[in-house]
TrEMBL record:
Coiled coil: none annotated. Signal peptide: none annotated. Pfam families: Amidase. The lineage of its organism: Bacteria, Pseudomonadati, Pseudomonadota, Alphaproteobacteria, Acetobacterales. This is AtzE family amidohydrolase. InterPro entries: Amidase, Amidase_dom, AS_sf, Carboxybiuret_hydro_AtzE. Residues 37-443 form the Amidase domain.
């Protein structure tokens, strides 16, 4: 048996095993849960200073939980499939005895949570250990993880670039190899966008299938919680545990009909990403018989409706607190919430009526296709000092527009898996895999086929560029 005291530190993605391998090592006593947790804490303390993905480390409690896991294993018990595996939570999930701040100082004087969010409790029950809370856009309102209170989260692939948001800390900590999996939330793309920009796997499950209780809301009619992971296998296991039941058996690829979303979803895509999507479509055309292009109507109106519904629900939720503590909010967040609270009821009603119509149009596509392919973002992560993307040839705010392809699809409540693609010049790209409600198994089958073909998978960090990027970032 390996001397547990000689276990190498989790100093890089190459030495941090995936969650399932890590749990197997701990269960078979090739390493201890305590050693794993303390090494993860050390890695965060040393390496996250440049990335800023972590807002708090639950050090003493995590070590205590790890000690319990080790004792149970020594007594011959099996603590579960994720025995001793540390994970992080976006700072809107309740963790017992911790204050849930949702990325804001507005809530920092709130009472600590009296119990875990349901998904956190389920993961704990499977042996996993909550280790840290992770940075996010304040109250999940944004696509950049540029937080006025806790700072900006940098992309581990290039520290001069955005990690995406609002679950940027969750994606970046997995991409950096600090944690094997993390939890995030997705209202308009807040899992899919950072997963794509950071080169990791992310899942927005079917609306309503994974418990959201214990997660601070943004727009309740759209909010979904889901996982990030470095491997597809880890993503599946974590999703099963969060859901509370194993997923259906994966269908055979030959039994699935795959189509590509065109129109709105083919416009403004960078050449490298368009080429990568072409390769994905060609793969399915060759192995599944066909990969036709299909279109959705009125996508621009769907995105506008998503904006209206999000603003109205978020503004209504925060209005009482805004009246008392408006100046404690990030000014950008405050202004948008206040504007949302002032939206006329007739405008919000029209947005919901359109949402119903558009959802029916999305669901209609699944009569002729099982899985749809679309870009997750227009391309690679934008620069921090130039936070824009090109839309119709014009530079527009990345913070407001990185959800160009994710926001419209949120209205349909369907499951969407964000798959990392082969990098462009070392920087990650990503696609959305979309299925009908409850068809997550089809998404995982298609994702597995892409991974096995070498077309999708966690994008490794560059070996030398991060140090140079860190020096440049430090000079900003």
């Amino acid at each position: 048996m390996t001397d547990q005291t000689d276990t190498p530190p989790l100093a890089s993605p190459d030495t941090f095993p995936d969650a399932l391998a890590l749990a197997a090592d701990i269960r078979h006593r090739r390493r201890s849960a305590v050693t794993t947790v303390t090494a993860a804490i050390a890695a965060i303390e040393v390496r996250d200073a440049r990335i800023n993905s972590v807002t708090r480390i639950f050090g003493p409690r995590a070590v205590a939980e790890a000690e319990t896991i080790d004792r149970r294993i020594a007594a011959g018990e099996d603590p579960g499939p994720l025995a001793g595996v540390p994970f992080g939570v976006k700072d809107l999930f309740d963790v017992t005895d911790e204050v849930t701040t949702a990325g804001s100082i507005v809530l920092r004087e709130s009472r600590p949570a009296t119990r875990d969010a349901t998904v956190v409790a389920r993961l704990r029950g499977a042996g996993a250990i909550p280790l840290a809370s992770l940075n996010m856009d304040e109250f999940a309102y944004g696509f950049a993880t540029d937080n006025a209170h806790y700072g900006i989260t940098r992309n581990p692939h290039d520290l001069t670039r955005l990690a995406g948001g609002s679950s940027g800390g969750s994606a970046a900590s997995v991409a950096a190899g600090l944690l094997p999996f993390t939890l995030g939330s997705d209202t308009n793309g807040s899992i899919r966008v950072p997963a794509a920009l950071c080169g990791v796997w992310g899942l927005k499950p079917t609306y309503g299938t994974v418990p959201h209780d214990g997660a601070y809301p943004f727009a309740a009619s759209l909010d979904v919680v889901g996982p990030f992971a470095g491997t597809l296998s880890d993503l599946r296991v974590v999703y099963d545990i969060m859901r509370g039941a194993p997923m259906a058996e994966l269908p055979r690829l030959s039994d699935l009909r795959v189509a590509r979303l065109g129109g709105w979803f083919a416009q403004n895509v960078t050449a490298p990403l368009a080429g990568a999507i072409d390769a994905v479509a060609a793969h399915f055309a060759a192995h599944a018989g066909d990969c036709p292009t299909v279109e959705l109507p009125e996508v621009a109106r769907a995105r506008a409706a998503s904006f209206v519904i999000t603003a109205a629900e978020g503004g209504t939720l925060h209005l009482p607190r805004l009246r008392r503590h408006a100046m404690q909010y990030d000014p950008a967040t405050r202004d948008r919430l206040m504007a949302g609270a002032l939206l006329p009821a007739s405008t919000v009603l029209q947005a919901h009526r359109f949402r119903t119509w558009f959802r029916e149009r999305v669901h209609a596509l699944f009569r002729s296709a099982d899985v749809l392919i679309a870009p997750a973002t227009v391309g690679e992560a934008p620069l921090i000092d130039q936070p824009t993307i090109l839309v119709d040839g014009q530079p527009v705010s990345a913070r407001a527009n990185l959800g160009l392809y994710t926001q419209p699809l949120s209205l349909a409540g369907v499951p969407i898996l964000s798959a990392p693609l082969a990098a462009s010049g070392g920087l990650p790209l990503g696609i959305q895999l979309i299925a009908a409600p409850g068809r997550e198994a089809a998404l995982f089958a298609v994702a597995a086929a892409l991974h096995d073909a070498g077309l999708a998978g966690r994008v490794p960090l560059p070996q030398k560029a991060p140090q140079k990027a860190a020096q440049k970032a430090g000079g900003q």
